[in-house]
Amino acid sequence: MGFVKIKTGMRRMAWGATFVTASAMLVMAPAARAETLADALVGAYKHSGLLDQNRALLRAADEDVALAAAALKPVLQWTASITQSLGRARQTSFPSVSDTDSLSATGSLIAEQLLYDFGAGAFGTEAAKETVLATRETLVSIEQDVLLRGVEAFMGVIEATEFVDLRQNNLRLLEQELRAARNRFEVGEVTRTDVALAEAQLANAQSGLATAQGNYLIAVEEYRNVIGRKPGRLSPPPSLPKLDANLDAAKALAVRRHPALKSVQHRVSAAELQIKRTEANTKPTLSLRGTLSASEALDSNAFSTSAAVGLNAGGTIYSGGALPASIRRAQAARDAERGNLHVVRRNVQQNVGNSYARLASARASLLASDGEVRAARIAFRGVREEATLGARTTLDVLDAEQVLLDAEANRISAQSQLYVASYAVLSSTGQLTARDLRLPVQLYDPAEYYNLVKDGPSRRSEQGAQLDRVLKRLQKN
After folding, report:
1. I want to staple 269 with a disulfide (CB 3.0 to 4.6 A). Which of 130, 150, 387, 408 is the partner?
2. What global pTM score does this model have?
3. Among 57-71, 167-181, 376-390, the range of highest mean pLDDT
4. Longest C-alpha distance within the chain, in Å?
């Protein structure tokens, strides 16, 4: 398989000429290294905006852990105010009126620490961590989808190129058949009907070539969208990946490691923790609060300071039924996640079975297509030889040519489907990742950002400075 030089002498549609020129230029550059499937998958991994989007969503989930953990840490706040008071007063003992204008400044420093909340804060933090793990698995699922689409785009260009090549060869053969039919008509061996049949078949082949060229351009656009660049000279796909021959073993593997299922498992755990957190929120809390205040009259020498420390306890006695409703809501959400877990598990197992069925079908189709092509080629050669001896008509030759064309087209499609089906099996079992395929890329580390933000670092700390550097690097990418 591969690109072939297209005859520039054909005068079809205007865009057809552009396609011919571009393909010819590709063939005229043999020095360029052929692009492999691995190269295409590397491009898909680096180019995907979908991966960038979900990595950002994962970082947002990481920040939820820091937000949840912040509820268990001290809170230090300050307030400041400057007040100008204007007024007049009259005392009962003196009939005169005096001004009571004043200008004062006040500042306060408030520190508060939650001492005990029956574990509500801790449950919230653990639930946020489970959500982070679930989001990481979702990112792996997206990565599998991106790489599988990369395989489909690569094979789509190869398939479309082979179809163009096939249609060109068919067109050249039909041009020869038309010339032969006209020559035989001139000497009276065939009728005008035979010539018309050859002309009709040639026109149909021209239409088929135009369609194949259009499909090639569509495949190029898909490749550009998924891989991030226009396809160059593509090398034939490598050998098929090694797959588990046992369907039951493959399903068991998928249940253990498929990211979609692992994501739901973490969401179930998060929902369980949310129930405990909601129940704890219905109970009292105990906190320590300290206040340091200073006040100064700016238009006099008056000055005062104060400090206070106290334990605060409180809770809700009645909220109109909101508290029990929140518990029931959390329980319903947990039940929904459990139900979804069963659905996803069955879907994962079904997808493995479907993928293996498509793979077996593609293998059988390719094997049958190989036999069909061999038989059709022998039949076509025999019919054409018999036609030169007058034992076959032009229609017989054209029919044999069409049978051969259909057989070769089926083989091209079957070979492309076989590769896509093989990688779809890897995806269904959770093995279609950059790490599993050993792609030469810098793998995204989901724990790097989490480890920097989980403790809620200050911007002025060393960890905060390191976090700023990571954020700048991510923005550049």
Report:
1. 130
2. 0.82
3. 57-71
4. 143
